[in-house]
């Protein structure tokens, strides 16, 4: 996969629109002691944390199920364009790879990403605005609680946002609804929906870049795979050792197509 090689050699960043027919994934890597708790968290929160695949402990080259990445030339330590490093719930560094921080106690998790249905939106004449502007999709903290699991308690969900005209919202819902493995249809839309999520200022996202919203458009919100990073923040000192994640907007591009996302 050419896009993964470009990420590995630090030649790309924001992956929205890259390899537009392929499934993209969020990434979280954490010590084995917390792997089962995180697996349970994903199963209890499938809208924001749709689990696609895992790696065996200590093996950065193999995914289960293996069909997600079919190439033997694969490494979760290098194949995202950028990474975040967490310690005691705080992001302490941003890296282009994590090769020198890896050890055999780590387990990787791939989480579905809403970038995967953006090709379908484009084909339906509903191209996401951040692709037009060449910016990173805006992402926001909400007041929606995650169902807890193990050390992951008291966390709330992250949502991504794409603006659309009110008359297009039903079509947007229809197009994205089948993509359950990549967050599915929106969780809220409109200015009242924004207020219900607890978002105060649409121009000040917590991740990504501020949006360009045209007059008459409304915000439309989807579950977001940055949510696991908020779960790590909430766990704080309960997690021993470093945790690694993708930099928001810098995804792992898989070998599956966006059509596969509808049947996973």
TrEMBL record:
| Native source species | Aspergillus chevalieri (Eurotium chevalieri)
Respond yes or no to whether keyword Lyase is given for this record.
yes
User: Mind listing the GO biological process terms from this record?
Assistant: glutamate metabolic process
Spell out the Pfam families in the cross-references. Answer: D-Glu_cyclase
Q: What is this protein called?
A: DUF1445 domain protein
Q: What superkingdom heads the lineage?
A: Eukaryota
What SUPFAM superfamilies does this protein map onto?
A: PSTPO5379-like (SSF160920)
Question: Where exactly are the transmembrane stretches of this chain?
Answer: none
Which GO-annotated molecular functions does the record name? Answer: D-glutamate cyclase activity
InterPro entries registered for this protein in UniProt: D-Glu_cyclase (IPR009906), Putative_hydro-lyase (IPR038021), UPF0317 (IPR016938)
Q: Which family does it belong to?
A: Belongs to the D-glutamate cyclase family.
Q: Which UniProt keywords apply?
A: Lyase
Q: Does the keyword Membrane apply?
A: no
């Amino acid at each position: 996969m050419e896009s993964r090689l470009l990420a590995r050699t630090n030649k790309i960043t924001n992956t929205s629109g890259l390899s537009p027919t392929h499934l993209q994934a969020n990434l979280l890597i954490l010590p084995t002691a917390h792997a089962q708790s995180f697996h349970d968290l994903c199963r209890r929160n499938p809208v924001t944390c749709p689990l696609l695949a895992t790696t065996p402990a200590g093996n950065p080259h193999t995914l289960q199920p293996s069909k997600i990445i079919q190439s033997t030339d694969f490494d979760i330590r290098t194949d995202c364009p950028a990474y975040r490093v967490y310690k005691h719930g705080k992001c302490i560094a941003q890296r282009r790879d994590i090769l020198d921080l890896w050890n055999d106690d780590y387990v990787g998790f791939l989480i579905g990403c809403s970038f995967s249905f953006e090709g379908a939106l484009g084909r339906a004449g509903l191209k996401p605005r951040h692709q037009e502007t060449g910016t990173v999709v805006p992402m926001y903290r909400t007041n929606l609680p995650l169902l807890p699991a193990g050390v992951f308690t008291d966390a709330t969900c992250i949502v991504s946002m794409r603006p659309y005209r009110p008359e297009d919202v039903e079509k947007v819902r229809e197009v994205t609804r089948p993509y359950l493995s990549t967050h599915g249809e929106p969780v809220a839309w409109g200015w009242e929906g924004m207020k219900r999520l607890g978002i105060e200022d649409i121009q000040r996202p917590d991740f990504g870049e501020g949006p360009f919203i045209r007059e008459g458009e409304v915000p439309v919100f989807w579950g977001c795979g940055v949510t696991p990073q908020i779960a790590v923040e909430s766990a704080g000192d309960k997690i021993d050792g470093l945790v690694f994640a993708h930099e928001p907007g810098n995804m792992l591009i898989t070998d599956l197509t966006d059509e596969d996302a509808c049947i996973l």
